[in-house]
Amino acid sequence: MTRNFSAGRMLILSAALSLLLAAAVPAEAQEKAVQEPVLSDPDSWTVVLIPDLQGYAKKECNQPIMEIMTSWIATHTERLNTKLVLCVGDLVEQNDRISSGYSGDQSSHRQWEATARAFSHLDGVVPYMTATGNHDYTYTRTGDRRTHIGEYFPIDKNPLNRKMLSQYGLDAQGNHAVENAAFEFRSPEGIDYLFLNLEFAPRDTVLNWARCIVGLEEYRNHRVVLMTHSYLDATSMRIPEGTVRVTSYEPVVRNGKITKFRQELPDANQGEAIWKKLVYPASNIELVLCGHVSGWGFRTDPNRAGVPVHQMLFDSQSMGGGYEGNGGDGWIRILEFLPDGRTVRVMTYSPFFALSPTTRQHAWLQEEGNQFTFEFGKR
Predict the structure, then answer these.
(1) What does the pLDDT average to over 341-366?
(2) pLDDT for 3 beyond 60
(3) Crossing angle for the helix pair 63-75 and 108-119, nearest 10 degrees?
């Protein structure tokens, strides 16, 4: 379902193939492929979705691609009437790493710095929510988890984030957490939204907190958008209930690699468990966004109240040459919310490919799973 193109290979091949592409693709399709994203209705507004960033963060040569993505979003915020930017998690490859590690050439400090620097292009321009992925944590042998996201993405980093913040939960250490939080927003057409952010494989206490929030009377008529890292797979199936396993690292280096091992993460929920415990019983969660699994997916199911719930996976990390490639070819996803209050138009675009005339014809993903529309139901 994913396409693995490395930027280097694309640059080498595109010149030789340009005449063939021009002959094979109708003129109107070529024009559509090279134009920048535009609103289909001038009264629309957008949410921009950023996929897993770990592949950019872990290598120094890949890190600038993140800044291409976020600086493009910042400079097009007014044109696209962007109200919020969401990142589905895995901001870094490893939360704690002081050596060359298992993959990549950057310490964790440098990875977090690079990701925070990329998001600085959005500070004061547009609010954003950043989920935590499995790679954003350090896990102990007993299954405890900790993350540095609060140090590099404090709520005051972007004053627009704090302005939208309406609810917050706790992390595994009992601290107020940006990875368990909710933003309130009223759309231009007058619909109230609540954007709810949950940690990777949320603990039962976090799901209980989230149930409490979406069940509050003040949010009864809000349209809730839930973002959590691990939910759908690339076949559009919810990740099954059961044991959640994560990768832990020991400070032992063998043959130039840090020792790693797989272990069970206690008190953790993904996909189907999140659906059963939180999404299905709620009457107001209407959209779920996730990453974690390379590829894309989409499905719609009714909740207990009969309201359609749209569920979307977007993770392009393998599209820039695989796990050790360029991090994902700079793909972002743009969700255009039309002024009818129901229709959402989905576009998938790469500001990275769009930079050069040599690669500009590849700046759009036009498959059915990357260019489509969906509609919210009436409640």
Answers:
(1) 96
(2) no
(3) 20
pLDDT in tens, 118-159: 999 999 999 999 999 999 999 988 889 999 999 999 999 999
Mean pLDDT score across all residues of the chain: 90
C-alpha separations of 170 from 175, 237, 355 in Å: 5, 29, 41
According to DSSP H, which parts of the chain are helical?
Answer: 7-24, 27-34, 54-57, 63-75, 108-119, 149-152, 159-164, 204-214, 271-274, 351-354
Beta-sheet strands, E only, within the chain = 45-50, 82-87, 128-130, 138-139, 145-146, 165-170, 176-186, 192-197, 223-227, 245-254, 257-264, 285-290, 295-302, 308-315, 332-337, 343-349, 372-375
Distances (CA, A) of 72 to 23, 69, 131, 316, 349: 30, 5, 21, 18, 11
What pLDDT shows up at residue 163? 95
Q: Any idea which residue has 């036009």 for tokens?
A: 366
The amino acid occupying position 46 is T
Closest CA to 148 of 133, 163, 158, 161: 133
Asked if residues 232 and 313 have their Cβ atoms less than 8 Å apart, the reply is: yes
**How buried is 222 (Cβ within 10 angstroms: 0-12 exposed, 13-18 middle, 19+ buried)?**
buried
Q: What is the pLDDT of residues 314-326, one digit of tens each?
A: 999 999 899 899 9
Is the Cα torsion angle 273, 245, 183, 84 positive or negative in sign? negative
Residue at 53: amino acid letter: L
pLDDT digits (tens, 9 = 90+) for 245-258: 998 887 888 887 78
Q: Is the pTM of this model over 0.85?
A: yes
The torsion angles phi and psi of 73, rounded to 5 degrees, stand at -60, -45
Return d(Cα 225, Cα 48) in angstroms, integer. 13
For the chain, what are the domain ranges? 44-375
pLDDT attached to residue 100: 66
Cβ(136)–Cβ(89) below 8 Å: yes
H or E stretch covering 77: none
| CATH classification code of 44-375 | 3.60.21.10
